[in-house]
Amino acid sequence: MENGIRMIIESIGEDPKREGLLDTPTRSCKAWAHLTQGYQQNPEEIIKKAIFKEECNHMIIVRDIELYSMCEHHMLPFFGKCHIGYIAQNKVYGVSKLARLVDCFARRLQVQERLTQQIADVIMEPIDAEGVGVVIEAQHLCMMMRGVSKQNSKMITSAMLGSFRDEIATRNEFLRLIAMERS
Fold first, then answer.
1. Which one is catalytic: 74, 137, 139, 167?
2. Dihedral of the CA atoms 135, 114, 143, 180 (nearest 10)?
3. What is the CA radius of gyration of the chain?
4. 2 is catalytic
5. What are the residues whose beta carbons fall under 8 Å from the beta carbon of 8, sequence distance 6 or more?
6. What is the rounded distance in angstroms from the CA atom of residue 31 to the CA atom of residue 141?
7. Annotated catalytic residue: which of 73, 89, 113, 125?
8. pLDDT of res. 182
């Protein structure tokens, strides 16, 4: 990978032997390893390690989970927030594992649409949730700094499963709660 990065530096007209670029291939490789660490993680194992029996049969929401990912089309970052809601059926997740699950999928080359669906799918089954809702709002540097150059654009995606898909009142409650004014 380091040789490839050196080739990129040369192909854009820079000198990879210049002082400021000498260690760039090594640093870049380390950055890519971090940005793509989700390929070395098993999302099902992450989430199954934090299931707790709890007399709880209502909606649970974790909102504003920061996420950073890489667009698979241009290999440029996109970043934003993920909001997760689920209706428990006497089993709940440890809250930090939901954030780890988001990171696991986000730390791969992605499209936001797939990322949203992957998170929802993995949350639903292990606790036999009545329903799951995932909303991601993100800004894409491939759209902001190249091409159409739209600085203030945001993409919003949602995946609704079970009662979040089938029952309008449940879906609307989730959407209202994630949109509530931040105190």
1. 74
2. 0
3. 19
4. no
5. none
6. 17
7. 73
8. 63
Q: Model pTM? A: 0.93
pLDDT digits (tens, 9 = 90+) for 5-48: 999 999 999 999 999 999 999 999 999 999 999 999 999 999 99
- Concerning whether 71 is annotated as a catalytic residue, the answer is yes
| Residue 22 three-state SS | coil
The span from the CA of 82 to the CA of 94, in Å, is 16
Residue of 83, 110, 112, 130 marked catalytic: 112
Cα gap 177→169, rounded to integer Å: 12
Residue 103: phi and psi, rounded to 5, are -60, -40
Query: Is 113 annotated as catalytic?
Result: no
pLDDT of residue 147: 82
User: How confident is the model over 137-158, as a mean pLDDT?
Assistant: 91
The whole-angstrom separation of Cα 139 and Cα 116 is 14
Catalytic residue flag (residue 58): no
Q: Catalytic annotation on 83?
A: no
Tokens of 107: 């730390």
Topology of the domain comprising 45-179: GTP Cyclohydrolase I, domain 2 (3.30.1130)
